[in-house]
C-alpha cells in the first residue's frame, strides 16, 4: 500500500507538533525516522522511566508507542486538521531494560476520519533486538484543530 | 464481590512498590486511595504532561491508569509474587485539561495467575468531573519477583 | 448521564435492523431489553454455539456483545445514518456453560461520529449469575447507510 | 523466530479439537492451513453470516479470527494442556462482502502460560484481497484441560 500525504507541508508539520509535545520532551523521546505513514521514536534508559523492578514502565513504553502511531497518522492528514488518539490496545510481550527503546508507528489503514495504525516497540542493545510490545491504535482527524 | 487480600502485609507492600516506581514520581503521581482491589492515583496538571494542544498526553493518562490498575491487582496478590501488566486497552473519551486527573483502578476478576482490572480516569475541577478515559487491564502475578 | 434519542423512530429502527441481522438469527439471539443507550441480547445454550470443551465459544459470546453494544449506540443515532463497529476489545472472565447467556450493551459516551459503549456478558442459571465477559466497543455513525 | 511444537502429536491434536468446535461447523469454517504457530481458517459468504447491510457480521469475522489465533497457539502447547482465549482486541478495517473470508492466525510470542497471537482477516475474490480486520489475542495454556 502506497501512502500519500495530503499536505505538501507534512514533514514540517509533524516535526513542529512533536516538538510541541512537552510530555515527549519530559520523557526524553527523540524522533529518529519520519516518512509518509511511518514514524520511529526512541527513548534512552533513564531511572525516571522505570517501574519498581527496574524495567521501563509500561506507561513509558505505551507513551512512545502512542506518539509514534499518532504521528505516523498525522503524516497523512489534510491541512487544517489535528490528530487525537481515540483508543488503543497494547500487549507487553517482554519486560525491557535495554539501553534504547524504539517505537515504530506504521499506518495500517488511512482514512478521512479514522486512521488505524500499529506500533511495535523494541529494546535495543549492541547486538540484540527484543520485541517489547505491539499495539493497535485508532487516530482521529479533527477539523479545525491546529497541528 | 468481596475482595480479600492474601498477604497480611498488602498495604505496606503496595505503598513501598509505588514509591519505587521512579516513573510515577517523574510524572508527579500521588496515591490518594488504597483498599483491597481498589487504588486511586492523581496527577496535577503541569506543562510537561501535555501534548501539542495543551491537553494531558494520552501517555500520561494511560500511565496512571495502568499503575492504578496494577496496584489494585497487587493488593490481592500472595506474598512473594510481583505484578506485571501483560496487556491493556484504553478508550480516550474526552480531552482533558482540568487541574487534576484521577485514575481509579478496580479489580473486576481476581485470579491466581491473571487478574483483570478496570481503570477509569476523570478530570476534576472545582465543580465538575469529566470522564476522560476507561480501560481494561490484564495483570499477571509472577512468582519470585519481589514487589 | 441522560441519553436522548435523536430520531423519533429509534425503537422501530433498532428492532427492524436487528431482525435484518441474519447472523443473530443464525445464533438464535433474542432482543430482551431496549431503551435509549441500552440493549440486552440473550442466547440459549445450544451445542452449535460451543467450542471444544462444551463452553460457549468466545466468538458466540463476542458476537452478542458486539450486537448489543452496536444497537445500544444505534438507539441514539440521527435518522439517515447507519452503525458500524470500528473496533472492540473483550476480556473473557469465566468460561460459560449456563442455560442462558445475556449481553448488556450500554453507551458510555455518545457522539456525532463515534460512540463508545461497554458490553458485559453474564451466564444465567436458576439462581446464579456469572460474569462471563466485559468489553469496550467503538461504534461509528455512517451517513447515508440505511439502518 | 522459529516456533517449535512441544507435542509430537500437535497436528492431530489441533485438527481433532477444531473438528470438535461445533460453533465453527455452525458457521461453516474450514481449516485451510496448519503449521507450527500458524493456522488459517476460511468462511464462504452465506446469508446467515451477515449483518443488516449484507456485510459479514463483525461477530463472524471475529469468531474465525479468534479460532485461528487460538489454534495457532495450540500448535505449540505441551501435551495435557488446553487452550482458552483470555482476551482479544480487533479493528475492523473494511466492511467485507467477498465470496471468501480468510483469517490468518500467527503466534507473536509463545509462552508456557500465555501466548500472544495476531490474526488478520482478508476478503478474497477472484483478483483482489481486501484487509478486513486485524486483531491481537491472548491465549492461555490450561493444565488438565483436554484439547
TrEMBL record, chains A, B, C, D:
Gene3D superfamilies: Hotdog Thioesterase. Keywords: Hydrolase. It holds the Pfam family 4HBT. Residues 53-122 form the Thioesterase domain. It comes from the Bacteria. GO terms for molecular function: fatty acyl-CoA hydrolase activity. Belongs to the thioesterase PaaI family. This is Thioesterase domain-containing protein.
Amino acid at each position: 500500500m502506497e501512502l500519500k500525504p495530503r499536505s505538501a507541508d507534512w514533514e514540517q508539520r509533524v516535526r513542529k507538533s512533536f516538538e510541541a509535545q512537552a510530555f515527549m520532551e519530559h520523557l526524553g523521546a527523540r524522533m529518529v525516522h519520519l516518512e509518509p505513514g511511518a514514524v520511529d521514536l526512541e527513548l534512552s534508559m533513564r531511572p525516571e522511566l522505570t517501574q519498581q523492578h527496574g524495567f521501563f514502565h509500561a506507561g513509558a513504553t505505551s507513551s512512545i508507542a502512542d506518539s509514534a502511531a499518532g504521528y505516523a497518522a498525522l503524516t497523512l492528514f489534510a491541512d487544517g486538521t489535528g490528530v487525537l488518539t481515540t483508543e488503543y490496545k497494547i500487549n507487553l510481550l517482554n519486560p525491557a531494560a535495554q539501553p534504547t527503546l524504539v517505537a515504530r508507528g506504521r499506518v495500517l489503514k488511512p482514512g478521512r476520519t479514522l486512521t488505524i495504525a500499529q506500533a511495535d516497540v523494541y529494546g535495543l542493545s549492541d547486538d540484540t533486538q527484543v520485541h517489547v510490545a505491539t499495539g493497535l491504535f485508532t487516530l482521529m482527524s479533527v477539523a479545525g484543530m491546529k497541528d
